[in-house]
Amino acid sequence: MESNGYSDVVSQQASLDAAAPVDQTHKGCGAAGGSGRASCGSSMAPEDMAPGVWEKVKNHPCYSEEAHHHYARMHVAVAPACNIQCNYCNRKYDCANESRPGVVSERLTPEQAARKTLAVASAIPQMTVLGIAGPGDPLANPEKTFRTFELIAREAPDIKLCLSTNGLALPDYVDRIKDLNVDHVTITINMVDPEIGARIYPWIYYRHKRHTGRDAAQILHERQMQGLEMLTERGILCKVNSVMIPGINDRHLVEVNKAVKSRGAFLHNIMPLISAPEHGTVFGLSGQRGPSAQELKTLQDRCEGQMNMMRHCRQCRADAVGLLGEDRSSEFTTEKVMEMELTYDGAARRAYQTAVEGQRHEKAAAKEAELRDLDGRGGDIAILVAVATKGEGRVNEHFGHAKEFQVYEANAHGVKFVGHRRVDLYCQGGYGEEEALPTIIRALNDCAAVLVAKIGGCPRATLKEAGIEPVDACAYEFIDAAVLAYYKSYIDRIEKGEITHTHRGDAAIRQGAYVAA
Amino acid sequence: MPYKIIGSQCTACSACEPECPNNAIREKDGTYIIKPEKCTECIGYFDDPQCVAVCPVENTCVVDSSVPRYQA
């Protein structure tokens, strides 16, 4: 780093750490800490988060894991142009069933985007966040991006604005971002070493010139670090996204984690590479694989001692609408939005959000009660538990209707969200889809149990055979409390000699489009 | 010879439009086109033609040999 003009990083680190919201001694969400030290938004306000920061993120589904059960986001696709090329991205391919960044069904003008935002805000009171994430780079389309923010800030001032960028143009626009009250910015940073960057980025377009190879990665790296430092100086919360590419940057992401934390990043989101050949990306065509579920989790756990890790990212489309993990964009096409009668009712939105606050307190109390009941039993035993949920932080989805399962880790000290697994729907029109079951089992293979609102006899038997216990006894209860209750029963049964604890192995991360959307 | 955009390959990402120093590029029927009489191949402005440098699809902004070369 010294050779890159950041030799003053050591002296900067002290002041940045003082301002950073994450305590240096933070060792993760109850994994190594004592009970009640759960973090990453798994309880109400994490103990190690400054109150001002919690106030900013508590209703932001992408910045708070806890918030993502209750609040929804939307992206408006006003930014088609990009200024770099990434080997994991191909924006030519567009399919409605496809869910990954860079993909959209239609592009919007700023005026269309503002109208769509009001339409969604009127119909979905839990929608609190408007993001611009492409399908190109928002800051490679500065006029369209900022015009959209201006229009929305005027019409719906309670909606939080955020954007996601590769960082190349970021230093040029930080002040404009600040002026528009955009207080959440995500930068995708995949490397701090240009040699590694050259294997991820074939070229960048910078100051009227196309740069390739190491030269391109060096410029991109310097601009990303400068942009991040400028955001931190201005008190704008910054999340860093990284794509985990096995064999290229998987080990290196630990270095990236240190570099971004030292510059004041608030949250680090390490995502698995999506590289199905049918996407036509360079990595998809070259056979570059993505990580397994346990490879991803191991890396996230390693970085957790450094700073808060985001594990609930769904790698959504640049026009997604709804709770993370659901996509309601088809209800809000431009054609439909133009026909809608819009009544933006700020009072109704506030009333809904107050009700959610009550639920969140109830949820935190239920978890505390279970933790007291567990009383530190369980020793070194940690298990993963999958949960079928459609929101509100409850076990409230039928096994057959789940498009994804959320995965929680429970141990003697508490419970934390550690990831999610996309699956194909098991139940189609009332009938079990037998072909989907093996893929669901592969996706949940590292879990000891799956908690559901309801499950049929056939999948129940198959799951049991695979060593995954189906549980519907905690239907509609809060997830954290239900997982802790399951953990307690698991430990009880071990102590009685009814079961033995075994290591569950690895699981697969679903690639490609939903076949059943 | 001015540049042209091969419409079947254009993703209509719009990246080229604001980069053109001659305002020669505009959207037409879902893709972008270069007005040949306005294109100067960026001679006098930049070392490289900007539409070629920024276009995400290789060999999509190409020389149009059917039109005489630009005289600076």
Describe the protein.
The complex is a heterodimer of chains A (517) and B (72). Chain A is of the alpha/beta class. Chain A has two domains: 260 residues, Alpha-Beta Barrel (TIM Barrel), CATH 3.20.20; 136 residues, Dinitrogenase iron-molybdenum cofactor biosynthesis domain (Nucleotidyltransferase, domain 5, 2-Layer Sandwich), CATH 3.30.420.130. Chain A is built from 15 helices and 18 strands. The N terminus and C terminus of chain A are likely disordered. Chain B is an alpha+beta fold and 72 residues long. The longest helix of chain B is centred in the last third of the chain and has 5 residues. Helix content of chain B is 12%, strand content 19%. In chain B, the strands form two sheets. A two-stranded antiparallel sheet of chain B has the order 1-4. In chain B, strands 2-3 form a two-stranded antiparallel ribbon. The interface between A and B is medium-sized, with 15 and 16 residues.
